[in-house]
Amino acid sequence: MTARSSVFSVLLLSVDPDLQAQLEQDLRKATHTLSITAAKDLASVPRAAAKRSFDGVILEMKRGHRNELAEVQRAVDPAHTFILAGSRAVLRSASGIVEAMANGHGRLSHSYRLEDYIESKLGDFVKEMKNGSARNLYPVLIRAVERPLITLALKETNGNQIQAAHLLGMNRNTLRKKITDLRIPIKREKARIV
Fold first, then answer.
1. Residue 91 forms part of a structural domain
2. From the CB of residue 172, how many other CB atoms can be counted at a distance below 10 Å?
3. Residue from 41, 55, 72, 38 nearest 169 by CA
4. In this structure, are 14 and 100 located in the same domain?
5. In this predicted structure, what is the pLDDT of residue 159?
6. Over the range 173-183, which residues count as b (16 or more CB within 10 Å of their CB) and which as e?
7. Residue 101: which residues within 8 A CB-CB, separation 6 or more?
8. What is the pTM of this model?
9. Are residues 72 and 133 in the same domain?
10. Range of the domain at 41
11. CATH code of the domain containing 97
12. CA dist 43 to 5, 10, 73, 78, Å?
């Protein structure tokens, strides 16, 4: 997938026409320069569309089809393309994320990525640590990022470790080990009945 344009382009991989309609409506509200290519899976994407570069890929995850996410990750440049993967329910409630990405598309240059943001924030910190003769910077930073990331994923999935592991792209047992190692408290909130 190559060649970027000023149009916000999204590849939607889902068999649910209602989800396609909802996401298209949400994105059209966010930006007028929108291109959505919808297909049931990566293999059924039209050849002409497969050669394009997408700003985002939205993937409906189905039970037993974990290799689809790996295929998408191999097909796109993760430095320039966001991937949003989840069940239908997750994707229906995540349209705000897609809308925010579409809104940011018009204001931010293509070279501004999450990696650039993190680099700018960590630059001064690393300099100070070097000047203070700090050691083991890598594990300190990984732990500092990993703990809030896992905590937020658990909060977003209402404490459901299986869903959180899926959201984070890791095995459930790996997540459980990290929860224990990082001493993350587990709170499962009950759904409110209104």
1. yes
2. 13
3. 72
4. yes
5. 92
6. eebeebbeeee
7. 8, 55, 56, 82
8. 0.50
9. no
10. 8-107
11. 3.40.50.2300
12. 24, 16, 14, 19
pLDDT score for 14: 86
- Domain of residue 126, CATH code: 1.10.10.60
Same domain assignment for residues 40 and 94: yes
- Segment-wise mean pLDDT, segments of 10 residues, the chain, 194 residues: 62 85 74 75 76 80 75 78 79 68 51 65 76 75 88 92 93 96 80 56
Among residues 53, 84, 107, which one ends one of the domains? 107
Tokens of 64: 């037993």
Q: What is the pLDDT of residue 191?
A: 57
- In-domain check, residue 65: yes
Residue 168, token pair as written in the block? 């984070």
